[in-house]
Amino acid sequence: MRVAVLSATVDVLLDGGLDALSIGEVARRAGVHETSIYRRWGTRAGLALDAVLDRTQTEVPVPDTGALRTDLNALLHHAAAFSRTPLGELLLRMAVRENMAEYEEVRERFWHHRFAAGSAVLARAEQRGELRAGIDHRLVFEALMGPLHMRLLLTREPLDDAFLDGVVGLVLAGIAPQCRSAGTGCGEEDA
Q: Model-level pTM greater than 0.85?
């Protein structure tokens, strides 16, 4: 049931946006009773959150390549690719809307989940010694994703590989461990 309901929710969102989301329509498309949806998700906002988180976790997975640079690259490239999908575009439109009091908690919970995903990448990098001590994980994630959203929402410039790789390079320059002394303790990327 969960898969059918979440899929139907995304379909309704894509067909008519958040304003068109109705539990009745989701129930009809999923082939379940409205009461089942209300019992499990409670509100339209809760249903929308679960559907969007489910889809983003699939389409913007938390990378674990074994290296911070390639993890951040994968995270940013997946986010950029997702932003070009119909659901990603809808989420961007929703993000800039101010008249959605019912969904403020949903927005906060969505970003909490996305920050947690970014933090998992950084925690692994800390364990490998690839991250300077004391770095604020949320700030790093915001610095990584900020330029992406700047281009998507404000300048509308392209999100090509050179741009995305450049953002990762700038972020890495700010969070990498400092070299202990010239010629010692520096990896190739620090030199």
A: no
- Distances, alpha carbon 181 to alpha carbons 172, 175, 184, in Å: 19, 17, 6
> What percent of the chain is modeled with pLDDT above 90?
50
Specify the residue for token string 């404000």.
154
| pLDDT confidence bin for 94, thresholds 50/70/90 | confident
What proportion of the chain, given as a percentage, has pLDDT over 70?
88
Contact 122, 133 (CB under 8 A): no
Nearest to 166 by CA among 152, 147, 179: 147
CA–CA separation, 73 and 33 (whole Å):
43
